[in-house]
Amino acid sequence: EQEEVTGLFSKDCILPCSFSPGHNEAIYWIKGKKTVHAYFKQEDQPKEQHADYRGRTHLFHENIPSGNASLKLSNLTVTDEGAYKCYVGTEQSKTTQEVMLHIKVSSYYALEYQKTNRKRRLKCYAFLTYPAPHISWVRGSVSIQEIGREETRSGVLYSLRSDQNIVDTADRYSCRVHLPHEEWAAEWMMQDKLSNTEGSSTIIPCEYGNNTANTEVTCVWKLNRKSVTSLLASFNGTSRSYQPRAQINRSDFSLMLSDLSAADSGEYLCNISTRRYTKLIVRTLQV
After folding, report:
1. Is Signal among this UniProt entry's keywords (predicted)?
2. Residue 259 dihedral angles phi and psi, to the nearest 5°
3. Quick one: which of 185, 199, 167, 157 has its CA closest to 277?
4. In what order do the strands lie in the sheet with 108-116?
5. Separation between Cα atoms, residue 219 and residue 233, nearest integer Å
6. What CATH fold (topology level) applies to the domain 106-186?
7. Which CATH number is 196-287 given?
8. Which pLDDT tens digit goes with each residue over 230-239?
9. Residue 67 has what DSSP assignment?
10. Quick check: do 3-104 and 106-186 share a fold?
11. Domain regions of the chain by residue span
12. What would the pLDDT profile of 93-134 be if each residue is shown by its tens digit?
């Protein structure tokens, strides 16, 4: 029966293997045609080991007599993923076990909105993925091509940025990151303009929909004014305010602004995110 183990990229993991205790144990861990680790004559046999695993494997010698042939594999990389076989022979018996190792990469994603003078642009990011990600764009309900991209490598991991111009602010724009084991999506939309008078208070809503229910939600409010972006308030389990007159309502993530002045005019950005989804809502306030 095959065991399943998931290890984190660059960390360590243990591949389990047990056998009926006996004398003169010979232990081989094999992946494909490569010898991952060899042990006989009561010691490790590094000359038998494939170069890919040199210095990264460890048997628990003190536990071998009691029937433990588990292997610790260190500094995991994406090519370590796959099926491993553990062969143990003693004077009394033979044992074969198979372990399937999956490697999990801690990738992360983001959607960024930029406004300069007359241009509005979106940047969709996928950081530290394996294999290389694919990013697609939709405007309204129509697929569109990216206008630029930048790809970088960090060892075996990929990072990708894909750019898109916002042509019509009445349209919704969405980007999607496609990977074999994971998908992430983000959506940008602009809502109706708000007008208020100086000295008054206002509430700027952030309509985020119900697909964020029962998941860990983070919310960040920013102000974009004359091409300068400033952080106003955030919520990540607890509320934080970076501007004394700005507060986040924890129940619906709306932004409460008090004692308004003309300097508060500008574009307000609400970023609502879960692990798999980000929504970026922009609203213009005129004071």
Report:
1. yes
2. 50, 60
3. 185
4. 108-116, 119-129, 157-165, 148-154
5. 8
6. Immunoglobulin-like (2.60.40)
7. 2.60.40.10
8. 999 999 988 9
9. T
10. yes
11. 3-104, 106-186, 196-287
12. 999 999 999 998 989 999 999 988 779 999 999 999 988 999
CB 140 within 8 A of CB 172: yes
Tokens of 12: 């360590």
What residues contact 260, with CB distance under 8 A and at least 6 apart?
Answer: 196, 197, 198, 199, 200, 201, 202, 287
pTM, two decimals, is 0.79
Q: List, for the chain, all residue ranges whose pLDDT scores fall below the cut of 50.
A: none
Of 82, 123, 109, the closest CA to residue 182 belongs to: 109
Question: Which fold does the domain 3-104 belong to in CATH?
Answer: Immunoglobulin-like (2.60.40)
Nearest to 92 by CA among 38, 29, 20: 20
- Amino acid at site 8: L
